[in-house]
């Protein structure tokens, strides 16, 4: 319990300034809470009460939102709050030993705040640095390439209470590691090129376009660029790069033709799938192309407002992204009368997430944008008709917007000629794990797993996890399969495991990830993902039986049939895939082939034996006849 003397004095002026800078808007609640947390490092009860009163919201609602997100704290954390990335690739690179080393250096216990309040050390889900792990976040800022020396240096800086701004810049240097570039990563596009091409497309053939609907019906003389550009996007057969693969042109068209007072464009930059980090690189080095694609979309659907939903782990990208937005405004590529087109007004605001994997699901992301807990909505209706503030909204992935900008320039036919028949264009991959050259690789769709393994210098590979834990695990006999929607669809993660890796432990890490990230809204997922962890932990302790393996399959059926969203539907994928392809790693952990109870009654008495100092046969259930 927190003693009253430990509670900080409430700085209502500072809180009111934060509220004012967000327009006092309840839809800005997540951003307001992030800023308010910066004052004390956590959100004391008095802060919650004050914000709720000022925003006119029930206190329980504000506290409910704050309690939902992993990066918002309702209890004190250390002034230096260190979160080690706990993806499987971080573990493969030694993150657990490094975490222990830091705790020993700082004389603290993992998960607890030091007595002087200086530091706390915990783990978090994948931070998107898998090509340069192990990695950690300190007060939300990423530090990659950890080793013993860097851990010792960080511990010294914390012990000396040096402000983060004075830490060596080299610690925070994040590499792009682009290893193979194709049409997207190699694109030489000047800011505004795609917009000018989209506008000119309508102007080139006004007679042909004259029968088309204007994107602003009330101004019939406006050039037909929006409809012409939409036709090019449809012709390209571009499909969403976030994983679901919905046809982008149809999505834009559905939004454009939906009834609504306003339309919105949302860029989903919340890439939280473990093993995925390509959007980080696109945002760091191709932000203009991302914003160009969003603006082309706004031009097509008639939107005036866009949001870029940036995952909290990438908060370090905020300043450069704001610079790009400011530069585009100054160049007339955002704001009013874009590219000289009267009535073409569009701007983009950045919304920073607060640590919730499920917000990568588009309806959960919209809930978060509206200042709520990121719980996925019932669908239908879909965001194209009822999205942000119940208005027609396009939500697309970072990479999808980049591709759309290229299509606006080069045309749909050009794009469709690349890739395979059902998977047009290229795919940017995040390659990590056991290989000599982890990083970013862009390939035309249709590339085989084997080709990628050869390019990145992987040897002795036993498995590749394609598209992260919610994707597919393929074994060596499937390396001729192709990355494409018709074979192995992928949102981008390509995680490699050589023969030295224990695929059971890989699956166990993923099971814990899903349990950690389940939002808890629906019972099958909330309980089912925890039960899966329990089964995997029991097997890890060599206490399982064949009954437990069958239980995994039963839980998988339950989760797939009755979960509310994709997280629950896919939570069993890594377990089922590894059970199918690597069953011996499960079987050698079985204690017996018969039923073994999950609860070890005798083991539960161990604490009582320690407390009473008894260890005779009578104190063991197993010794009692
Ligand atoms: Fe939340 Fe899981 Fe239900 Fe999705 S399936 S709504 S993540 S509890």
Defining traits:
four-stranded mixed beta sheet; six-stranded mixed beta sheet; binds iron/sulfur cluster; 26 helices; 41% helix; 12% strand; 625 residues
Structural class: alpha/beta
The residue fraction in helices comes out at 40-55%
Measured between the Cα atoms of the first and last residue, the distance is: 45 Å
Name the ligand types.
iron/sulfur cluster
The strand order across the widest sheet is: 5-11-10-14-12-13
What gross morphology would you assign? globular
Give the averaged pLDDT, no decimals: 93
Contiguous helical run count:
26
Report the strand count.
Answer: 14
Spans of 5+ residues with little confidence (pLDDT < 50)?
1-5
- Percent of residues in beta strands: 5-15%
Note the main sheet: 6 strands, mixed
Radius of gyration: 26 Å
List the helices and strands and how they pair.
Layout: H1 12-21, H2 29-40, H3 45-55, H4 59-68, E1 80-85, H5 88-92, H6 95-106, E2 119-124, E3 136-138, E4 141-143, H7 148-159, E5 178-180, H8 193-204, H9 206-209, H10 225-236, H11 248-257, E6 264-269, H12 278-285, H13 287-301, E7 305-310, H14 318-330, E8 347-352, H15 362-369, E9 393-397, H16 398-410, H17 412-416, E10 426-433, E11 439-444, H18 449-455, E12 461-466, E13 472-475, E14 493-498, H19 503-517, H20 523-540, H21 546-562, H22 566-570, H23 573-581, H24 583-587, H25 601-604, H26 606-612
Helix pairs in contact: 1-2, 1-3, 3-4, 6-7, 8-10, 8-13, 8-16, 10-11, 10-13, 12-13, 13-16, 19-20, 19-23, 20-21, 21-23
